[in-house]
Amino acid sequence: MSELVTFGETMLRLSPPGKQRLENARELEVHAGGAESNVAITAQRLGTPATWLSKVPETPLGRRAVGELRQHGIDTDVVWSHRGRQGTYYVEQGGSPRGTNVVYDRADSAITTASAHEFDLDRIQDAQVFFTSGITPALSSSLRDATANLLKAARQGGTTTAVDFNYRRKLWSPEEAEGTMTKLFPGIDILVIAARDARTVLGFEGDPRQLAHKLGSQYDFTTVVVTRGDEGAIAWHDSVVHDHDAYETDTVDAIGTGDAFTGAFIARRLDGDDVPTALEYAAATAALKRTIPGDAALVTAEEVEAVVSEHGQDISR
């Protein structure tokens, strides 16, 4: 039985090679990518058995997405659907000042009709951690209910619940996100949130250390991790705030960095590490992910260990 179970949509990511524009590209690279499956892949590669739950169309594209995830070693427990479609998204990489552009094509995808009763709740209740992200309830009203019900089922089974807030402005407004996510907060043990989202969506003020403390105190989370991009992350746990800088890295593909961080943090906590050590390994995993094309952190535990050993820092509390 898997120690970690995740729930959410995985799309097919299509990208022009190099930094070509979509409008004149003659070929596209294909990767499977989704926040929850990315977290599962990272944890699995670091030694934590992981399962990904989802609802997927019974089509060649749906099978393509699931097949790729299985190649990474995670267990895929999916509801196959004859309604809906396989979500896709397009990534156009570009340097400054153009930057990277993401175009979603995921409306009416199969997972938008998912409900909690379609899944094996024993899978969740037998796991140590159940994880999902704020992307999932943003996709449909059905998924808002499903997310709430799966978190409730996890809690009832004694499973620790973890959520990455993961606000996406192309999916919903700050007001919609705040209204939905704060209703889910009572069912969440571990919250991961970007400092910018705590400010712009939840209306919290202060530096990341203050944000972590305020969130943990107000919503009674067990652990709050506030990410701050190139500056690393802050974690609040047992009323103590821990700090870790980001590692320097040559960025090849930044997409999936946050998922790699979260997957590694959860994996190390499940392995018995304290919060400061889990932060250290999460930062190292995130740095390695940025050197790898595609969404998934195709890293090994030995590579992460080498980064920590070579570039590790004193951990402040």
From TrEMBL:
Residues 1-296 form the Carbohydrate kinase PfkB domain. It comes from the Archaea. Keywords: Kinase, Transferase. InterPro entries: Carb_kinase_PfkB-like (IPR052700), KDG_KDGal_kin_Halo (IPR054871), PfkB_dom (IPR011611), Ribokinase-like (IPR029056). One of its GO terms (molecular function) is kinase activity. Pfam families: PfkB (PF00294). This is PfkB domain-containing protein. It comes from Natrialba asiatica (strain ATCC 700177 / DSM 12278 / JCM 9576 / FERM P-10747 / NBRC 102637 / 172P1).
